[in-house]
What we know:
0% of the residues lie in helices and 19% in strands. By secondary structure, the protein is mostly beta strands.
Amino acid sequence: NDPDTKASVSHDFTCTCDSDMTIVKIDGPATCTKDECTTTPCGTGQTCNDPNTSPSSTGDYTCTCANGVVTTGGAATCDNDECTATPAPCGTGQTCNDPNPAANMLHDFTCTCDSDMTIVKTDGPATCTKDECTTTPCGTGQTCNDPNTSPSSTGDYTCTCTNGVVTTGGSATCTNDECTATPAPCGTGQTCNDPNTANPAANMLHDFTCTCDSDMSIVKVDGPATCSSDECDAMPCGTGQTCSECTTTPCGTGQTCNDPNTSPSSTGDYTCTCTNGVVTTGGAAT
């Protein structure tokens, strides 16, 4: 612009920048700049940069997201769901969640254990465990053990009875009839009874009883009873006779009976003795 066109007035013209009309130079060209970032062309949280502020250079500004995404000549799209990364940021059996994919937030994703949603880790895989024993899968009085608490490991827990019976992946059957043991816990001529074989909760050991067949009042707990087959307490023999297996009066009239071994397992060893001294074993004497 030349404010005074008279011939006598010179060097009074001005040059004004079209990009910024406050920039004016008299008697020569102005030094003009045009920083496109002054119009705030980028989105919230984005950094704008105009590498060339010459008025002739337009559309070369850049918008940079906090996560590094860069767009030239316009606002950038900064959405970045960290859960879609490869490899997956969370471990197997975990759920990933990025609460701020559009806020240019990094390292805020979480990993939650599928087996226990109270276990949550931010910016990395969680340490998950799945102890199957927490659901009390074993019977009363049984001991549960899960050797591998990885969420991917299931059905490998064990249930152990107090008597040592172990079952994997389910409740154990702890019944234990001690009378079926080998060798038999009771002696010959005795009856064994285990009163607590059907109650796994009791897990009672050493409670079996041995009862003498010859005298059911003789009972021993946790071991063979001491039985006697001497029925002479009923005094079945006549005067002057010695009784043992003689309760059945195996000897003849006037004969003396003697049973040298009254053990229930010892039979047929009684003797019958005549008054003249003749002796027969296991039967009446002649």
